[in-house]
Design a protein that fits this description.
Blueprint lengths: L4 H16 L4 H5 L7 H5 L9 H8 L3 E5 L5 E4 L2 E4 L8 E7 L2 E6 L2 E7 L1 E3 L4 E3 L4 E3 L22 E2 L26
């Protein structure tokens, strides 16, 4: 439910506090008194990880991409709009549940519904998006404002290289160019 990494950290800390101070069914079944994890575990703490280790562990659904001059990005053969006010800028795309979010400088620019295939590690089925008003919007403005229906993803077909067909007959010219004086 968090929209930014800072909000995610805040919500995670609140969850840990609630989890550690709430009675649990497993502890009740084990007849532990009190059935509250923080009192059962005492001063025990979990394993601490460096920010680099955490980033590596959770980076499987994070994709840095550079916008083109119109503010669009390409991800796994899908081309979609992020923010026109950030041309040629690296943005961060990440999957959170069924949401594909685009962010720059800790600000959510756009959100799309999607499906992430954890086996292939690819985003699939990207659907119309929602665009947020941000401080990065172009000062010039746009002639026709975008709606979620205008953000429909354009799928690129994979180009298959076929060798040129060899024909046994020579190509006939439709017109013959004749040099004149």
């Amino acid at each position: 439910m968090a929209r930014t990494p800072a909000e995610l950290e805040q919500r995670h800390q609140a969850f840990i506090q609630t989890y550690n101070t709430t009675a649990h069914q497993g502890l009740l079944r084990d007849r532990r008194l009190p059935p509250i994890p923080v009192e059962v575990l005492g001063a025990a703490t979990g394993q601490q990880y460096t920010p680099e280790e955490l980033a590596r562990a959770f980076s499987q659904a994070v994709f840095p991409r550079t916008t083109n001059r119109w503010g669009c990005v390409t991800l796994h053969s899908s081309h979609f709009y992020v923010e026109a006010g950030l041309p040629q800028t690296q943005v961060l795309l990440w999957v959170a549940g069924t949401q594909l979010r685009a962010a720059f400088d800790h600000v959510i620019l756009a959100e799309y519904s999607c499906r992430y295939d954890w086996r292939d590690r690819r985003v699939k089925d990207v659907r119309p998006g929602v665009f947020h008003l941000t401080r990065f919007a172009s000062s010039q403005g746009i002639l026709l404002p975008l709606t979620p229906h205008d953000s429909l993803v354009v799928y690129r077909t994979r180009a298959r290289r076929r060798p040129p067909a060899r024909s046994s007959t020579a190509q006939l010219l439709l017109f013959e160019v004749v040099p004149t004086a």
